[in-house]
Amino acid sequence: MKIECKKKYKVDYSLVDKNTNLRITECFNLAQNNATEYFQKFNGDNIYVKENYNSVWVVSKSKIHIFKNSSWLDILEGDSYTSLVKPIRIETETKFKDKKGNLIFVANQESCLLDIDSRRIRKIDTINFPEDLEIDETLFERNYQRLNDTFDENDFVYEQKIYSQDIDFSKHVNNVIYVRFIMNSLSNDFLDNIDITDLEMHFIAESKEGQTLKIYKKELDNNVIRFLIKENDREIIRASIDYKNK
After folding, report:
1. pTM (predicted TM-score)
2. What is the set of domains in the chain, with CATH numbers?
C-alpha cells in the first residue's frame, strides 16, 4: 500500500533570515509538519495513538540535507513517505521541491513508539501501523553518524532556559526548538560567509519547562561543527553541522 503526503507551502516572510533565505529551523519545522500529516493519513499521528494506544511517537534522530537555498515567496512542495521500517523504529523522509521540480532540501527522521505510562519503547506492531506499507528509497548518501565527541567547559557557549512556549503535545521541548538553540550558537558574521549543507540531530533525553540547558560547540576540520546540549550532567542533544564556504 502506497501512502504519501504531498502539500504546497509558501515561504512567508516570518520564515526567512536577514538575507530572505528560508531558515534551517524552518526547514525542520516544515518537514516535521508534513511528516505529521503523513502519519495522520493512516491514523498513526500522535493524537490518535495517544488516545487509542496510550503511546506517542518520539523522534530519536533527525537530519536534513540542503541542495540549494529557497527565498521569500518561493512555493515549495513537500512529499513525505516511509523509507525504513524495523520492529521498534521507522524512518520517515520528506523531500521539498520548487515549482520547477528541483530538489531544495530533504529531511529524514527516525522515530520510536513510547509507552506513556512506562516510558519504555514499544514494538510498532502493537499499534495499527500498516503492515503492507510501501517503502520508498532514501535520498541520503550516508547513514546516521556516531556523534561521540568529547566536550569540556572551553566549548561552552551559552545557557538557555526552557519556557512554556517551547513545549509541544508530548509535554516536552519540541525538536525544532533545539535546532534554534544550535543555530543561535553561531554568529551572523559566521553565517554570512557559509552555506550549511547538512544538520544532524540525535535526541538522547527529554527536557521540560523550567529547566536550564547548556549549549556546547566544537569546531572540527573539514568544515564540521559538533554540538552538545546538557541539563546539568544529563545529555539531551548531540548534533553536527556540515557547511561550505561561500
Report:
1. 0.93
2. 1-144 (3.10.129.10), 145-246 (3.10.129.10)
